[in-house]
Write a structure and sequence with these properties.
The structure is a single chain. With 151 residues, the protein is of the alpha/beta class. It has one domain: D-tyrosyl-tRNA(Tyr) deacylase (D-tyrosyl-trna(Tyr) Deacylase, Chain: A, 3-Layer(bba) Sandwich). Strands 1, 2, 3, 6, 7 and 8 form a 6-stranded mixed sheet that branches. A two-stranded antiparallel sheet has the order 4-5. It is globular, with a radius of gyration of 15 Å. 31% of the residues are buried.
Length: 151
């Protein structure tokens, strides 16, 4: 499971020209799920994300978590995070999980953030054509991968 975490001053997802979800200060999180991922991967990344200290304290140091600053999360499923571009010019998505596997795991991940970590989580619509608009704060962009815990 792979996350692209972007610290944001604001973020929104539009579907069919209408705002579907929005947050103010927090994280825009792109969530990629591969065919080998399971609930342990989701648990690992939910915990890492909830405790990630990238918000500034009173001294200007990145020392606070999203919970400590009262931030929200806009979580958007993004199968293209598993694009394989090694051959040719057209990416292959063979490693990305099929929707019937990915959607329940994506929902589980978001539920963990809400229920175990008490975070406000907004989402896009799984499988929809979405447009994202956000203001990256910093900019701060962090890559997280559940496979990194095995390294």
């Amino acid at each position: 499971m792979r996350l692209v975490v972007q610290r944001a001053l604001d973020a929104r997802v539009d579907i069919d020209g209408e705002t579907f979800s929005r947050i103010d200060k927090g994280f825009l999180v792109l969530v990629g799920i591969q065919d080998q991922d399971n609930e342990d991967d989701a648990r690992y990344l939910a915990r890492k994300l909830a405790l990630l200290r990238v918000f500034e304290d009173t001294e200007g140091k990145m020392n606070l978590s999203i919970r400590e600053v009262g931030g929200s999360i806009l979580s958007v499923s993004q199968f293209t995070l598993y694009a394989d571009t090694r051959k040719g010019n057209r990416p292959s998505f063979i490693r990305a999980a099929r929707p019937e596997q990915a959607e329940p795991l994506y929902e589980f991940f978001n539920r963990l953030l809400r229920e175990e970590y008490g975070l406000e989580v907004r989402t896009g619509r799984f499988g929809a054509d979405m447009q994202l608009r956000f203001t990256n704060d910093g900019p701060v962009t962090i890559l997280m991968d559940s496979q990194d815990r095995h390294a």
